[in-house]
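Dear colleague,

Thank you for sharing your sequence with our group. We've completed the structure prediction you requested, and as agreed, I am returning the results in plain text so they can be pasted directly into your records. Please verify that the sequence below matches your submission; if there's any discrepancy, let me know and we will rerun it promptly.
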Amino acid sequence: MDKFNFDKFEQEAIQNLKDGQGLLGKAGVLTPLLKRFLEKALEGELDHHLGEEERSKGNRRNGRSSKKVKTSSGPVELQPPRDRQGSFEPHIIGKREAYLGEDLEEKIIKLYARGMSYSDIQAHLSEIYDLDVSSGKLSQITDKILPELEAWRARPLEALYPIVYLDAVHFKVRENGRVISKAMYNVLAIRVDGHKELLGLYLGENESAKFWLSVLSDLQARGVEDLLICCTDNLTGFSEAIESLFPQARVQLCIVHQIRNSLRYVTHEDSKQVMRALKAIYQASSLEEAETQLLNLEQMWKTKYPIVVRSWLNNWERLATYFEFPLAIRKAIYTNNPIESYHRQIRKHTKSKGVFPSDQAVLKLVYLLSRNIMAKWSMPVHNWALVIQQLAIIYEDRLDRHLKI
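Please find the predicted structure tokens below.
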């Protein structure tokens, strides 16, 4: 191989840049340098391969072959060295590899996990790698995540979780020739160490307390023995389902959900006044003050908005759970915001999907999106040191054996 004259290359590269030539791509000014680097690396690998043992077998160099390698910088024509016996297996770019860098299947899965459709991925691979990959092949590649998904969904869980948020997000799925709405039941927990953990993903036809009961049963089967506080929306029968399996759990209905549902029945003219009355309830400093403000709401609005008042009165026991706790715990449980934040990130990448072709497609994509989201949960939740200290005092008999101190 001729000696590479870097000084000459540098001068030519500078001149080509001045002439408007790009850095990368087929005619890029850096492409010859990449070609040289790869060929030198292959030479070094072959020299290492042809050690004393191989030479004793009569193995020697045997000229060169021709190979076109696709890279993110564009295609590169290589002349990799060969050995006589064909036993040389290079590592930097394998014999049967047509692209350089990250494993192509892993790259496809990462693109899919960002919410890209198969057609978007096909366009990307064609533009960057000059590869034509069918949607069927892409589906086969992304299906390789399914064993990991099933193992994750069946993994053992911790015996106790101090705080758990339970909610569902909905998707359109094609089934038996028609499009139906399905609910993805999600369970987001705060572990004893303060880190968030997604306990499971469950797909059902619609959100119901009956299905939630099966979800909670699965958590039990995977090792969950105790939940201290469960934060939910006001789905009929949901609280009873939780308490039937975890009788010691305290259920907190999401205040934000309750307010949203209330304001749906209030005219625009009255919305500010009603909101002030509701705020006086949920921002009260004590249960006694909150109940006084609840009576004020009833007196002021029971005639005009009986549905709103009745909803607060009927659900008050579980809406007011957070008043049993100190302020730091109240802030952690009065709303389902942690799981709603997770759902917002999921919707950001799925809203353009329209209709999913199957249940498996929904689970596959939501799991991959969730895997990316979970990777960012590296720190304990805000103010957790204080929260767990207070929970340890309140639930000493249930929490002590789970604290790793």
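Summary note from our side: The chain has three domains: 6-83, 104-149, 160-400.

Kind regards,
the structure core
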